[in-house]
User: Fold this.
Amino acid sequence: MGWNNWYHYNCVYTAQTILDNANLLATTGLAGLGYNTVSIADCWMLQTRDAQGNLQVDPVRFPRGMKPVADTIHQLGLKFGIYEDAGYETCATYAGSGQPIGGGKDHFVEDTQLFTSWDVDYLQMDGCYVYVDTPSGFQTAYAAESAALKNAGRPIVFSELAPAAFDYSPEWYDVLTWVRDYGQLWRTGDDLGNDVNHPGASLFGCVLWNYAYNLPLGRFQRPGNWNDPDFIIGGDGWMSLAETRSQMALWSMMSSPLILSVDVSQLSQDELEILGNQQVIAIDQDPLGQMANLVSRNPSVDILFKPLSGEEYAVAVLNRSDSSAQVQVLPAELGFTVGPNCSMDAQNLWSGELQSPLTALQVEVASHDTEIWRVQFSADCGTPTRTGAIIMTLNQARGTIDGYTRCLDSSSAVEACSGIPEETWTVTARGALMAAEGCLTDVGGKAVVQTCIDQDTQYWNYSLAGNLVNQSDQECLTADSTDGVAQSLSMQSCGHNLPNQIWSLPI
Assistant:
């Protein structure tokens, strides 16, 4: 958790900008709630190194250098973060740490030593202008920086932007498989509000898009390693209070880093209360560290379910539409084997209202808003199974949730998600994929739903790459179309990052 200048200020900032916001984190109480790392983004350095090859701090932005800024931030009881790039230039074309054009010696060790002398606690490393612009070239660069940090002499959190450099190609999944070996968090895709990728899109539309591409990546995340869908930008004047609540709730359901990128002085009291909601922050920071499951999705509403430590759970309902939505969530829809006396105690984390006992969550969700609850279930509800939607994502349809996501239904088709019961699946401990009508079965090269029986043709191994591999013949579940509308499923040899073989399952 923390604050970064990039989204609100880009390169238009000075040392005083950074220190003003750091002071406000402390005086508003946000720092005490966990927003305790102040990190500086691109443009803090000059475009060239000195004669000895050292980075040079911009004397106009930082007339006293960087160490006094770091010291002042530390005196406030906060941590200090800095930015660099794995390429020969940063994204704003300042001096990078990576190999120069044409190859040669990088500067990862020397730059890390400089950061250590400033008592840096957090390093964000971008991925622009990497000389060897391939996944393996990126891996070499980030591995080198990781090694330098391990020898830095002080703990420095490593934030990698490597996956985002490949987020429009199948190689995205290759990078996601190795980044957790080197750092603690990584940017999974687009900058929020990036008008190059989303011309004319609303800012809330960009928030929903970052949520959409991050949510299916739960398999890559584990405690100590976090998917990062970019900054919290609610309160910046471009999103309503409802939309700000949605971003906080969705990021918390995904266990995402909560890094503000706003002018803290401009936050209203209502915005401060949303961003500083201790109960919602606790959902994000829960030590179990599990991302939410997508229970169901229709053209208006998403329902999310997240296990927490201590046998508690979080439930969130997002209304993406322009009208209010009446929603009911039953324990059975969340994977509970409901007994006759199943009930739940639910606290709405925005209103604070505690309701008990309930047999269902019933709520009217305002347009663009997200309701979120902390829930305890009675013993008669049983233990939840891994239940929810199985989805396929479409690279060529990036930008909108409905265009990007396709749901597997029990008629063995892949279609636009509609939230119908036929799109609900349970993943058993042994790897069966169960719908109400039976189990997904490998039958002579086709995948169809049949009565559940104990045989290998109904059991599936799930790879980190996202492949569903049948245990009987080691072939992969494959949609017969790559445009997201598939009327049948087949079993084919597993390819490398084939989009019609990559699935997201309930965790």
